[in-house]
Amino acid sequence: MAAFAGLSGWAAPAAAALSDQLCVPTGAGDLTAYPAAADLQRAAAAAEQRLSRRGAADPFSDVAPGLELATAGADRPSALAVAEYCAAAGELMRVSAQGSQLQAQTYLLGAFQTASRAGLQAQASVAAYRLGLVSLSGTPASGTRGARGRSRGPTAAVREVEQMRGGPCDILVRTAFVVNAGLPLSVASLGCAAEQARLAGDHKTAALAELRLARLRLSVAEQNAEAGADFRREAAEAARNGLADARRIDDMALRAEAMGRLASAILDARAGRTDDLAAVTAAMREVRIPAAQAYAAALDARLAAAAGDLAAARRLMDDALLLESQRTLPARLPEYRLLLADLDPANREAHVLAAYDALEAIRPLLPRFDPLTEETAFSLYMRRVFQSAVDVQLAGADGGAAVVRVKGAQQILEAYRQAELQSVFGSECIPARDPLKPETLRAGEVLLYPILLPDRLELLYVAGGAGGAEFRRLPPNYSMGRQTLSRLVETAVVSLSGGEDDAWRAASRQLYDILIKPVESQLTEGSLLAVVPDGALRSLPFAVLLDSRNRYLVQKTRVAVAPALAYSQAGADDAQRLQLLAASLEKEVRLPAGRFEKLEGTGAEAKLAAVTDGRRIERSWVIENFNKADLVNALTREQVDVLHLATHASFNGRSDRAFIVANGEVILLSELRQILSQNRTRGGELDLLVLSACETAVGDDEASMGLAGAAVQAGAKSAIASLWPVSDTGTAELMKTFYKLYREGRTKSEALREAQLSLIDQGGDLANPNIWAAFTLLGAWR
Question: pTM of this prediction?
Fold first, then answer.
């Protein structure tokens, strides 16, 4: 394992920190002198205490200095001291926005293996549980630009889980370094955490690990039809194991909540018997607090429905609604109303819309992350309500009610997209804007809203220039639900990003027929298609979709992506285009976030952005091997309309850790926003942010929003970014043409389209869609 800057911080000097040397998974660090065991344990205890009461503020600056200890002698400290210290260091990296997920995994795996070798089951369980939570937050960053490696995609991850052999702890012991974050590591870590915690008598950790594992398996089952039955069965098994531990949790409120969630997971799994759950709800009712009483009543309602007694089920669900409404924050009120809709199908629409109204009332009060399992409140409480509300609105969009219904569905959709963005980025990072109004669209501008529902695909669209533009609904496609369409997108993106086969072609044609052909008549010469993508569609390069004549969509129309109408304006024709700052990084950089390979072509690319017809444009600045201070100084000194960053960037994992790589440090997207907003010499937003060396996630709805929200979070009207790593030559050629055309007066969408067409027309390697299709325009297109 390479020595990184460790707990000294993201911009630390090259010298390795204590945690880098001490918390190596193999236990073979290079230290010749060590801190005293007592000092390690005191530092770990202080860090754990601070982390346990963390609030909205980032704990990094408070905790990190206390973990840098002086050495005291040549004797290696006890395994207990090392395990506790490394678990604390890993937890700091995991929860802090300034922390590195790669180092969090390294430290926690080191803590687990140290504890496991010494038979310290309690410490091993804590480290494994935290390791599982790190893995769930996304793939840690590594070098991106220049490596044309194939994206793995969710299907490959599912297969890896199915092929895992041996006990979960055996897998972690065999894994010397974390090489495969995500689903397989999460499954192994959480399973091992439950196993070790149970041996240590830590029933709380065992129950929580099994709960998180059950919910993870249910999530996979929902997204993958082929593996669904097996994953649901294993989810039910994990939940049942967790129930045995949850019954022995001392804290009554926590015991009831854990039991309720585990029982819910068993019911959601629809795998095996449920008659024994009546004893669970009876135990929950013994806890005399409204939340437990309401939860027990809701579970009893579901059990009564499973037994065929719908009258009793509806009565019990009414009791649950009454009890939940008495809570200060009735977080499950929307969920219970949805359950009532299932029990009373004759009045389904009324119940679903009541659930939506209940959600809107409490949504601003919900915490961003659930304190028990650290899932997002959006995934726990919101997504299903939004989807159900859109579903019932559109289901009745026939005849004279069509216009009103479609408008209502679109308004719910917009609230849905905004809530999703705010969940991923935090509402404080996503300030409200005036939404794009359909009537402002010009002739030839078409806005497409695909909606991925479990049983069908819905398409809403609005075409500008017709006077009184309004959203229209196309006939629903019942042959294409969320799972099937997501699998098509995965096939296309994995093949395209690898650039080594043509598997993407068939998927691309099918996606064109499904998504584009219904609005094809609207796409005339000079038109623009702006898509507000849903779910897996966020990772899809729409420009590459193939029609029946094997013509790319980009050969037919301009293409742009809008994360939500509230965060996308069409843009102005008179945007300032000539004041540009281009910053590049060519050096290899080793940071807590990972090792980033040397970039060969970024310096030349930055210079190309500042040159037209061989001459440097008047208002342009180029910074080679830039750092944060360089950006601050340049943006303070000059007005900049276009910021071109030719460097590694990552938007995977927790969105508050999205970053670009500078010389010796990373710059968080949230920091970039502050730099842009605090240091501009004149008002207004950055017109265009270009990120030419980044990648986004495939198959993870929340992680894939990182790129879609990059422009929003950085405070730019629009962004051009890559969906996967692209060669230096291809990037340079595309950017050279784009900037030339943009300065000549083309809009952003026109310049990008013509640059892509130029590569296609050249033929050869540059015509490979692996190169030109990776670049997408987000936000303002004019």
Answer: 0.90
Residue 647 and residue 601: Cα distance in Å, rounded? Answer: 10
163 φ, ψ (degrees, to nearest 5)? -95, 0
Q: What is the largest CA-CA distance in the chain?
A: 83
Residue 654, CA distances (Å) to 347, 510, 657, 697 in order: 39, 32, 6, 11
Q: Are 122 and 200 in contact (CB under 8 A)?
A: yes
Q: CA-based Rg of the chain, rounded to a whole angstrom? A: 27
Reported as a single tens digit per residue, the pLDDT across 527-560 is 999 999 998 998 899 999 999 999 999 999 999 9
Q: Which of 83-92, 189-198, 429-438 has the lowest mean pLDDT?
A: 429-438
Q: Is the pLDDT at 142 greater than 50, yes or no?
A: no
Task: Identify whether the C-beta of residue 139 lies closer than 8 Å to the C-beta of residue 697.
Answer: yes
Q: What whole-number distance in Å separates Cα of residue 74 and Cα of residue 84?
A: 20
Q: Which residues contact 763 (CB under 8 A, 6 or more apart)?
A: none
Query: Exposure of 609 by Cβ count < 10 A (0-12 exposed, 13-18 middle, 19+ buried)?
Result: buried
Residue pair 706/697 in contact (Cβ under 8 Å)? The answer is yes
Residue type, 757: L
pLDDT one-digit tens code per residue, 190-201: 999 999 999 999
| Mean pLDDT within 568-586 | 79
In 3D space, the residue among 52, 54, 55, 60 whose CA is nearest the CA of residue 9 turns out to be 60
DSSP 390-431: HHHHHHT--GGGHHHHHHHHHHHHHHHHHHHHHHHH-GGGS-
The helix/strand/coil state of 3 is: coil
Do residues 102 and 140 touch, judged by C-beta distance below 8 A?
A: yes
pLDDT of residue 684: 63
How are strands ordered across the β-sheet holding 659-662? 665-668, 659-662, 649-650, 694-695
Torsion of CA 753, 758, 763, 768, to 10 degrees: -30
Sequential DSSP letters for 696-760: --SS-TTTTHHHHTHHHHHTEEEEEEESS---HHHHHHHHHHHHHHHHTT--HHHHHHHHHHHHH
Q: What is the pLDDT of residues 463-475, one digit of tens each?
A: 998 666 789 999 9
Separation between Cα atoms, residue 39 and residue 33, nearest integer Å: 14
CA distance 564 to 604: 34
3-class SS at 626?
Answer: coil
Q: What are the tokens at 426?
A: 């935090």
Higher pLDDT, 208 or 577: 208
Non-local (6+) Cβ contacts of 213 within 8 A are: 132, 187, 190, 191, 194, 235, 238
Q: Which residues contact residue 19 at a Cβ distance below 8 angstroms, ignoring those fewer than 6 apart?
A: 6, 7, 67, 85, 86, 89, 103, 107
DSSP state of 78: P
Angstrom distance (rounded) from CA 193 to CA 211: 11
- Categorise residue 645: left if φ over 0, alpha if ψ from -120 to 50, beta otherwise: beta
Residues 6+ apart with CB under 8 A from 30: 3, 21
Query: What is the structure's pLDDT at 190?
Result: 96
Cα–Cα distance, 49 to 44 (Å, whole number): 9
Residues ≥6 apart with Cβ < 8 Å to 644: 580, 581, 582, 583, 606, 609, 690, 692, 735
Rounded to 5°, the CA angle 698-702-706 comes to 80
> DSSP secondary structure string, 168-228?
HHHHHHH-SS---TTHHHHHHHHHHHHHHHHHHT-HHHHHHHHHHHHHHHHHHHHH-TTTH
Burial readout 706-726 (b: 16 or more C-beta within 10 A, e: otherwise): bbbbbbbbbbbbbbbbbbbbb
Measured torsion, CA atoms of residues 622, 628, 630, 631, in degrees rounded to the nearest 10: 60
